[in-house]
Design a protein that fits this description.
- With about 150 residues, the chain is mainly β.
- It has one domain (about 1-150): Porin (Beta Barrel).
- Helix content is about 10%, strand content about 60%.
- The protein has one helix at about 1-20, and strands at about 30-35, 40-50, 50-60, 65-75, 80-95, 100-115, 120-125, 130, 135-140, 140-150.
- The chain has an eight-stranded antiparallel barrel.
- The longest helix has 18 residues, at about 1-20.
- It is elongated.
- Mean pLDDT is about 85; it is low at about 1-25.
């Protein structure tokens, strides 16, 4: 498991250093709000400039989990409106049993802005590691995102 986390960190650093050089908005939108499915979450993406966006997620199940991600977007040649992204993040989770956890997240996925329609779709994987008494890797976050493009 440690090797997987180290590999993921290397992948994030590599993509940041090598690919984050583009200065235009590669996604075709600046802000979008909607939902992400499995597990269900409210999501908001906002452009930070260039090819970087911040994403905030709020999950509700047996408590609440708040996640913040920084995502770097990259073109996929020959497929208009489709980009891939990768990035790091962090979360804090409060359970119904009056306990809380915090941890680190990563994300890798595909993002599609439908031309001439204010709709954005994404499909991603969001592995995370909870710090705490036992420490736990969670690979089940991510899923399908459906967002309304604000601008």
């Amino acid at each position: 498991m440690k090797k997987l986390m180290l590999f993921f960190c290397f992948l994030v650093l590599f993509s940041t250093a090598v690919l984050a050089q583009r200065k235009s908005n590669v996604t075709g939108y600046s802000s979008a709000i909607g939902a992400k499915f499995y597990p269900a979450a409210f999501t908001y993406k906002h452009g930070l400039g260039g090819n970087v966006k911040a994403e905030g997620l709020i999950y509700f199940w047996s408590g609440a989990r708040f996640t913040g991600l920084v995502e770097w977007y990259h073109y996929i040649q020959g497929l208009p409106g489709l980009t891939w992204y990768i990035g790091p993040g962090a979360h804090i989770q409060f359970t119904n049993k009056n306990t809380y956890y915090f941890g680190l997240d990563g994300v890798i996925g595909l993002d599609w802005k439908i031309n001439n329609v204010p709709l954005n779709l994404s499909l991603d994987w969001q592995p995370s590691y909870d710090f705490g008494s036992n420490g736990e890797f969670k690979g089940g976050f991510g899923g399908l995102g459906l967002r309304y493009v604000i601008n």
